[in-house]
Amino acid sequence: MTKKIDAIFALNCSVNGAKIEREIHSSRSLLEFIREDLGLKGTKEGCGEGECGACMVLLDGKAVNSCLMMAVQIHGRQLVTIEGIKGKDGGLHPLQKTFMAEGAVQCGFCTPGLIIASEALLRRRPGATLEEIKLELTGNLCRCTGYEKVLSAVEKAAAKRK
Ligand code: FES
Ligand code: FES
Fold first, then answer.
1. Closest CA to 5 of 94, 67, 70
2. Which atom of ligand 1 is least distant from the CA of 55?
């Protein structure tokens, strides 16, 4: 029988621009840390096994599935959750605006993950093409929208960011 190894770890990181210092169990997943310890419920738990993208967050600017990572892995790094995605004026982010304008949100469960994945792409490729957007969002499942409005929302945000 394998024995689960757990220890207390002193975690230092940045979350949505604020420095965080916490003692956590080394067995804590990043998703548990975000939702339960930090109370940031915008990051969703869907499949819990890396298939749906609902739990995506930005880690040092790259989109990662937080259900597949341990919280200790963000030590010394910069985490941004959907709560940290804002426009320059502190209001809605341009992607949030285009998602609303295009009607790309229904139940909204997938939306934080889609916005995070799209933001990661647009940071790398500000004027991303439709094909690039489709490729980037293959890890994000949506059971409601049929994807067309989502793709259109990201395309519009990309056109504005060129
Ligand atoms: S909950 Fe993490 S990928 Fe589905
Ligand atoms: S809007 Fe419901 S899962 Fe995407």
1. 70
2. 2
**Ligand 1 center from residue 162 Cα (angstroms):** 30
- Nearest alpha carbon, ligand 1 atom 3: 50
CATH of the domain at 29: 3.10.20.30
The domain that holds 131 is classified in CATH as 1.10.150.120
Interhelix angle 94-102/148-161, nearest 10 degrees: 140
Identify which ligand lies nearest to the alpha carbon of 114. Answer: 2
pLDDT band at 6 (very low <50, low <70, confident <90, very high): confident
Rounded to whole angstroms, the Cα distance separating 38 from 15 reads: 9
Contact between residue 54 and residue 66 where contact means Cβ atoms under 8 Å apart: no
The rounded Å distance from CA 35 to ligand 1 centre is: 13
pTM: 0.95
Give a yes or no: residue 127 inside a domain.
yes
Number of domains in the chain: 2
Q: How many Cβ atoms sit within 10 Å of the Cβ of residue 115?
A: 26
Residue-range definition of the domain harbouring residue 69:
8-83
For the chain, the average pLDDT equals: 96
Domain assignment present for residue 3? The answer is: no
118 and 55, same domain (yes or no): no
